[in-house]
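Two folds, back to back.
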Amino acid sequence: MQSRIKKLAQQYASEFIDIRRHLHAHPELSYQEFETSKFVQGKLTEFGIPFEVKATTGVVGLIKGKNPGSRIIALRADMDALPIKEENDIPYKSKNEGVMHACGHDVHTACLLGAAKILNELKEEWEGTVKLIFQPGEEKNPGGASLMIKDGVLENPKPQAILALHVNTILEVGQLSFRGGKVMASADEIYITVKGKGGHAASPHLTIDPILISSHLVIALQQLVSRNNNPFNPSVLSITSFNGGNTTNVIPNEVKLMGTFRAMDEEWRFKAHELIRKITTDLVSSMGGTVDLHIDVGYPCVMNNEKVNASARKKAEEYMGAKYVSETELRMGAEDFGYYAQQIPACFYRLGTMNTAKGITAGVHTPVFNIDESAIEIGMGMMAWLGSSLEV
């Protein structure tokens, strides 16, 4: 089976590189993936794979092998792009001004389509069912994964495990990486408006200075993690925006702050929310001001099931060779795949796309992001192999 998958991945690689290039040239923002969804539906129809549309632009295909109820594995890819103006000088540069596949979701979608074609062609040679999840809106709250789950993507049939790959721009092409347990952080957005009493900058005693209050607040919040969280439990609080006033001689009425809070432990995450609220309210009040505070609860942390991760890594080593499989580093970035991992056993792994010799080293979410496209053959083959052979 493994040799058959490798042969087909090699045979179809150029087809799916072209598909990746088409997707790259026609990116769409989160929850606006209408043409991308139609394209995916068209390919599944071409391959003879039945599908349903969920959460408006999501697509869910189903491939049944022998004894379809014996094992049910879900494979997921995200389809949305980012609001970034592409600066690459390539034939398949984005045709949608200000929108770019700068996080590799074009790669993910192409790999899953490639795996789908291979799995469907070989469905008489493997056992179980593979559910193909093409998901919208990974880049924007509330996260397309949460919407797909609400629309029943994990039911009828319910997968025993779900897997997804993600490009890794610091891992050389030809490599894969896996990690059990904590993989990526939760991500919550913080919005604070500190209100005081404005006035002439030469008469600060007649004002309640929201800039001074906010300055104290930023420093106080920076101590929240270092003095309340276990140092062995990764967590980050960053205030990233400080806006108030617009001239030299006027103390403003209010200051607006924004920031992000990241954690890898759900219990600490929500305890920290309460501490943020208490520190903010008490400090601002003690200095004479008032405050509006909103914490926009975002994606949960990504937790890989230890058993599923171990099984997937073992299969990857069989497929690639052990020397080409490594341990994924912890990341404080976030991924809405965490929603799936809260529901069923999950494994989120990395596909190397960097090629230092060719100068392909740009990171994700940058206007010059690109990949070594030989990663497509590896990605689609690996997904097909995991879908057909993962032990659950």
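---
second:
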Amino acid sequence: MHLNLGYLLLIRLFAIGGQILALSYMYFYIGIHFPVKPVILIITLLSMFTAFSWLGYRDSKEITDRVFVTQLMIDVFALSCLIYFTGGSINPFISLFILPIIFSAASLRPAYTSVLTLAAVSSYTVLMFFHVPLDNVHIHQDGTQMHLWGMWFGFILTAGLVAYFVSRIGRTLRERDRALAEARENALHAEQILSLGTLAAGTAHELGTPLATVAILAKELEHEYEDQQELVNDLKLLRQQVDNCKQILSRMADNAGQVQANSGHAIAVDNYLDKLIAEWRNSRPGAQITTDWQGSLPAPDIIVDQTLTHAIVNILNNAVDHASREVEVVGRWDKQKLELKICDDGKGMERALIDKLGENIISTKLPEKGMGLGLFLAKSTFNRFGGTLQIHNRDTGGTRVLIELPMGSLTI
């Protein structure tokens, strides 16, 4: 409605300009006289009202239906007054009564449109019988011809304004429908994420017992086979990974639906990335990864958010799972955005699958290796920060994931 009022005020200016030109042509060139003072007063008041409305329109964030219909009723009243002093129903500009009706039909509820239509039709009807007649019209033998040309001009003006502005209103309505569809899709994603969060919290508690059992058995096996050093080392690594799993599940259970304990902590971008990679290496000790940080130093500070860290880790895990030898991570930053490029040297993915990744819960892995949640959750997290996630196949083989995050959302 806010944008439609802008269109209405603009179309009113065009109509005022057209009326001034037409009335000046009638008065000075053709010699048809009409009460000049009341006509000038009406046009002046309408122009002032438009200027004040424009100032209020710029400052207002929301326009109600009542405000919009009041603007249209003012147009009907002002046009009725002008037509009254300039010949009544024989004035070609009487066809402009259709414009407020079109605007109302395109923007308002049927009840408001019915009231406005009744006002326009009543004004037209009254002006057929009550008006100030134009002087000197009877002395022109080509009066009919002049009236026809006036009707033609009024039609051209009305048709042009309707074609342009109503099409703009239609485009605005289509954009609103697209925005509503996008909002519904985002709400569906949010509902899916909420369900996953609830499920994750319950699963974290349920997995605590079997993981504790595995840790105890691994400890007992260490003592039983303490003379086999290679096996003991493997069992220690197993216990270490079990401990990592227990810590991750503990954080999930303790912080589900809450702000992470280490959130809100300011840290330089390069230090954050170094810390993230170091912690990730502990969970994937066999992964081969190279890093390259590019950006101005000292690097800007960002606010650490654990959900963002989890999202980036998910991308790193997927890259390692698909890589043949190593993963390359390139980080770039400036005052506007943080960009992360994560590349693997694997076989790449099918184009049809790339287009679906992150939109739905799908997986390119075997069932025992993953459920396809990582990319879905990662993309949802990046979207929440106003960022983007793009996936492409590399010309040299493998996959390239590009993450772009606006600095404004990371520093607030």
